[in-house]
Design goal:
Number of helices of chain A: 18
Strand order of the largest sheet of chain A: 1-2
Number of helices of chain B: 10
Radius of gyration of chain B: 29 Å
Low-confidence stretches of chain A: 1-20
Distance between the termini of chain B: 30 Å
Order of helices and strands of chain A: HHHHHHHHEEHHHHHHHHHH
Largest sheet of chain A: 2 strands, antiparallel
Oligomer: heterodimer
CATH superfamily of the domain at 165-277 and 288-352 in chain B: Cupredoxins -  blue copper proteins
Shape of chain B: elongated
Number of strands of chain B: 10
Order of helices and strands of chain B: HHHHEEHEEEEEEHHEEHHH
Helix content of chain B: 40-55%
CATH architecture of chain A: Up-down Bundle
Helix content of chain A: 55-70%
CATH class of chain A: Mainly Alpha
CATH topology of the domain at 165-277 and 288-352 in chain B: Immunoglobulin-like
CATH topology of chain A: Cytochrome C Oxidase, Chain A
Number of strands of chain A: 2
Low-confidence stretches of chain B: 358-366
Strand order of the largest sheet of chain B: 3-2-1-5-8
Mean pLDDT of chain B: 89
Largest interface: A-B, 142 and 132 residues
Structural class of chain A: mainly alpha
Number of domains of chain A: 1
Shape of chain A: globular
Strand content of chain B: 15-25%
CATH architecture of the domain at 165-277 and 288-352 in chain B: Sandwich
Radius of gyration of chain A: 25 Å
CATH superfamily of chain A: Cytochrome c oxidase-like, subunit I domain
């Protein structure tokens, strides 16, 4: 293996020479770029724009929840005819909830997070000149871009955007007479998602091939940084589960447009019986959640990978239990594909199936617990450099624990009965995957900003403001929400005024909304910091965080091929921070880190991790 | 409440200003222009991490103190006590773990904040430790899984023992209908293809089926206390979910199939109204409603506690208002009520339009 890898390295060095003389136009450099670093930036900026839309939507419907039926000029300004006299329409409320979910889960946290950092870091951290196929990579981004555009266009459809919830369960999503959003809006939603899935598959295949084949000399699988392990496994679960969502979407399109009955049967609506016979909505639920649950980990694993890397670097300590971390990632990935039924305990499927899914679901808590404990131990006796990226990583572990623990309730089929589809669920998944993955995204942006923008750094003090306000508000929104769910308030209710038993919860709703609005403002601080740093950011040192991984040995200025000279060779794992010899001296005198490119010193023991 | 909000906002603004001034100072000094955390940053943020731990505990205690009373009252069904107990134990475990792990995480963040020339400990592995924190969750979860599955199997076992009352819950956008088996306690055959709105056969019952003639169709669910009820759920249009939170009961209604759930109500509505928690809740709610009435706002009629059936699966525009009242009463009261109801056979015979079953009530109310 090492011989072939070596040969490969040489080859690439030669290839690269040719590239240098190739003149790049504006179009090939900034638009149809095949360079993974540029594609990463394209993913990030598209993801952030979608994130802005998604978060803005959540603020709108949070205001409706806190002050139901109240008139707000902002509603009228943003929603137009959907907010006559500034009062939000009930169909629009459902549409906002639906598109918020879709955008945040797929467009921000799948493409924006995994797309950005897989593209940026896989070649740089494994020591490759680029992805295995730069062309497929470009195609993947532009399909993502197209699907984003279609999703945004769907917001302006006459009858309104899709409004059946982000899970778009039929028959609601299949029948335009059940809900106006199930007309053109839903068609565009399905088209957008079909293209998105294709984009995600192209990307994932590329990541897998690149990690397996293009590792530099000495970069064995067990020397890979945990970021790469996370991206690699994420790509694999993406390839396994996304096609199933595509089939669900295709069958739904057929039911909607071509009169088939895959998911529909025995329907009487608006005074007439429809012809559908023999289909089952439960089948759709199975297909959807076969992706839908792994999707949670497609969102979360890259965030955990980023956290591992950022935390170890800033703690100036090796990540604790590297092998256990890799094993947990694999265990989580495997289990994630056989737990989907816990979304369907009370869907009408056989209760025995519910038992099986309870069993597999609660098992997933074990590798998750191992990861949490390993993070905590990584901090123990460290020399923590509390950069914004580090704070977001610690924040991630905190919300991952808080949100993950309530999974023990929801994963238990018995306990799920009464909290299913209530705000308890909303609180749970926002903390464990929404907020946690966003923190991972932010940690990654703060940490690798210099790598993306040629050495420029983001302002740390604005970063601190961003983190602390966000951290307080995230708990402020989602902690009290558990109680709302335990009081029995169902999710996706336009307002809770039809039930006197929910009257006294209005105060909590107001509290959560105020926190959400403040959190929204805090994101503007990030946006300002991000944009101004791109243009006016101060250049930092080449390796600002004193990190061991290969990306910091690459040229600061972006060149096609990453390294001007030959690709570096790797001699050790990525986590030799604060490693000392027998005399208690650092391996490299005066320096508490040993980059992966430094050969083993005389008498140095390589850790058999 | 408003005071609290103002306080929180003020605190946040204060933090923001504090940090902003720091930025200003730094930009004045110019000596320290690096965007990499220095000892001061580590110190400040280390303290902040500790403060954040206190914040997490504070918001937990605050939420319990202020919001515990919002939680559902004790279960009104036979299996509900098991449910509540399992929930309590699970929560105890969760809070124990949460308190400890958050403390360790944030305390370490504070304790080991970076200082120049401090040496971190190179500590990459410890099989024993990792074994311990793998095996403990395994044991705890194994216990929870077994207990949960035992309870689940008991709850979900819908059988005909103990002469259960058979009731159909029928969902449509955006209202509920209930159907009783009548004298014979057997539901007549039904299908959406037999719906005849003109003759008020809104549930699509088979008029030729002799079991259907004595079925009773109502818009308010009455249940006799202490008798097991087997629910058969149907939906005519989209997915709905029959959620009866006070009974710890929920099941989706799926077009094209019949789903089932079973429970035994153990407290009548009258008894539940006497419950201290419920009475308190009603008092608090009516105080809010009185205030509304004083301000001339809508939705201000005094409230009396009732069990309720909610729709808990997104079903369209008026999803938020798809409900049916549930009344649990003594056997005598139940029989009395049942006697006053018309059977399906009588309904068809008189062929009167009957109550307007098929109007989308919720939509109209808007």
């Amino acid at each position: 293996m090492s011989v072939t890898a070596h040969a490969h390295v040489e080859d690439h060095a030669h290839d690269d020479h040719a590239h240098h003389h190739h003149k790049e136009t504006f179009v090939t450099k900034y638009i149809f770029s095949q360079d993974h670093k540029m594609i990463a930036k394209q993913y990030l900026i598209t993801g952030l724009i979608m994130g802005f839309i998604g978060i803005a939507m959540s603020l709108l419907f949070r205001m409706q929840l806190a002050w139901p039926g109240e008139s707000f000029p902002i509603f009228e300004a943003v929603l137009g005819k959907w907010a006559p006299d500034g009062v939000m329409d009930a169909d629009m409320y459902l549409a906002l909830v639906t598109i918020h979910g879709t955008i945040m889960v797929f467009f921000v946290l799948t493409a924006g997070l995994s797309g950005t950092f897989s593209n940026l870091l896989i070649p740089l951290q494994i020591g490759a000149r680029d992805m295995a196929s730069g062309f497929l990579n470009m195609l993947s981004y532009w399909m993502f871009f197209t699907s984003s555009v279609i999703m945004v266009i769907s917001l302006f459809v006459e009858a309104g955007p899709a409004a059946a919830g982000w899970t778009i369960y039929p028959p609601l999503s299949a029948l335009p007479m059940a809900q106006p959003g199930s007309g053109m809006g839903m068609t565009l939603w399905l088209v957008s998602m079909a293209i998105f899935i294709a984009s995600s598959l192209l990307g994932s295949l590329n990541y897998i091939v690149t990690v397996l084949n293009l590792r530099t000399k000495g970069m064995s699988m067990t020397r890979l940084p945990l970021t790469i392990w996370a991206f690699f496994i994420t790509a694999i679960i993406g390839v396994i589960s996304f096609p199933v969502l595509l089939s669900a979407a295709l069958l739904l399109i057929m039911d909607r447009s071509f009169g088939t009955s895959f998911f529909l049967s025995d329907i009487f609506i608006q005074g007439e019986v429809l012809h559908y016979q023999g289909g089952s909505p439960v089948l759709y639920e199975h297909l959807f959640w076969f992706l839908g649950h792994p999707e949670v980990y497609i969102v979360l694993l890259p965030a955990l990978g980023i956290t591992s890397e950022v935390m170890s670097t800033n703690a100036r300590k090796p990540i604790f239990g590297y092998r256990a971390m890799v094993a947990s990632i694999m265990a989580i990935a495997f289990l994630s594909t056989i737990v989907w039924g816990h979304h369907m305990f009370i869907s009408g499927m056989n209760p025995f199936l519910g038992s099986v899914f309870t069993f597999t679901t609660l098992l997933i808590a074990i590798p998750s617990a191992v990861k949490a404990f390993n993070y905590i131990t990584t901090l123990w006796k460290g020399n923590l450099q509390l950069n914004p990226a580090m704070l977001f990583s610690i924040g991630l572990v905190s919300t991952f624990i808080t949100g993950g623990l309530t999974g023990i309730i929801l994963g238990d089929s018995t306990l799920d009965i009464n909290v299913h589809d209530t705000y308890f669920v909303v609180a749970h998944f926002h903390l464990v995957m929404g907020i946690s993955a966003l923190y991972g995204l932010f940690a990654g942006v703060y940490h690798w900003f210099p790598k993306m923008f040629e050495g420029k750094m983001m302002n740390k003090n604005l970063g601190y403001v961003h983190f602390w306000v966000t951290a307080v508000c995230a708990y402020g929104v989602f902690f009290p929400m558990h109680f709302v769910g335990m009081a029995g308030v169902p999710r996706r209710y336009y307002q809770n005024t039809a039930f006197p038993m929910f009257d006294e919860l209005t105060d909590v709703q107001v509290l959560m909304t105020v926190f959400a609005l403040i959190a929204g403002l805090a994101q503007l601080v990030f946006l300002y910091n991000f944009i101004s740093s791109i243009f006016y950011g101060k250049k930092g040192p080449k390796n600002p965080w004193k990190s061991n991984t290969l990306e910091w040995t690459a040229e600061v200025k972006h060149i096609h091929g990453n390294w001007d000279g030959p690709i570096p060779e790797v001699h050790r794992w990525a986590y030799d921070y604060s490693k000392v010899d027998e005399n208690g001296e650092y391996i490299i005198p005066g320096q508490d880190f040993v980059p992966q490119t430094v050969p083993l010193q005389k008498d140095e023991e390589e850790l058999n991790h | 409440m408003t005071t609290l909000l103002i306080l929180i906002v003020l605190a946040l603004v204060a933090i923001a200003i504090w940090q902003m001034t720091k930025i200003f100072e730094l930009s004045q000094l110019k000596t320290e222009s690096s965007q990499i955390a220095n000892d001061d940053d580590n110190k400040n943020n280390g303290y902040m991490l500790f403060a954040f731990l206190i914040f997490i505990y504070a918001i937990t205690i605050f939420s319990f103190w202020k919001y515990s009373k919002f939680l559902l009252p004790e279960a009104a069904s036979a299996h509900g006590a098991d449910y509540d107990y399992l929930m309590l134990v699970s929560f105890a475990i969760i809070f124990f773990v949460q308190t400890i792990t958050q403390a360790l995480l944030h305390y370490f963040g504070y304790k080991y904040r970076g200082e120049k020339n401090k040496k971190a400990l190179f500590y990459a592995d410890n099989d024993r430790l990792e074994f311990i924190w793998t095996i403990i969750p395994v044991i705890v979860l194994a216990g929870l899984i077994l207990w949960g599955l035992y309870t689940w199997t008991n709850i979900m076992d819908v059988n005909d023992e103990d002469d259960p009352l058979i009731v159909e819950l029928y969902a449509q956008q955006f209202n509920w209908t209930a159907r009783y088996g009548g004298e014979d306690n057997v539901l007549g055959k039904a299908n959406v293809r037999m719906i005849d709105i003109d003759r008020a056969n809104v549930l699509g019952l088979d008029e030729a089926d002799t079991y259907a003639a004595d079925d009773v169709i109502v818009k308010e669910l009455h249940l006799p206390v202490g008798r097991k009820v087997n629910f058969k759920m149907r939906s005519q249009d989209v997915l709905h979910s029959a959620y009866m939170p006070h009974f710890r009961a929920q099941m989706n209604c799926v077009p094209g199939m019949t789903t089932e759930f079973s429970f035994t109500p153990i407290k009548t509505t009258a008894e539940m109204r006497q419950n201290a928690d419920v009475a308190d809740k009603v008092r608090r709610t009516n105080a809010i409603r009185a205030e509304r009435a004083a301000n001339g706002e809508d939705n201000s009629d005094p409230w009396e506690f009732d069990y309720i059936l909610l729709c808990n699966k997104i079903c369209g525009k008026s999803h938020y208002n798809m409900q049916m009242k549930i009344i649990v009463e003594t056997q005598e009261e139940y029989e009395e009520w049942m006697k006053s109801q018309q059977t399906f056979g009588q309904l068809m015979a008189t062929n009167e339009p009957g109550p307007a079953f098929n109007t989308p009530l919720g939509a109209d109310r808007n």
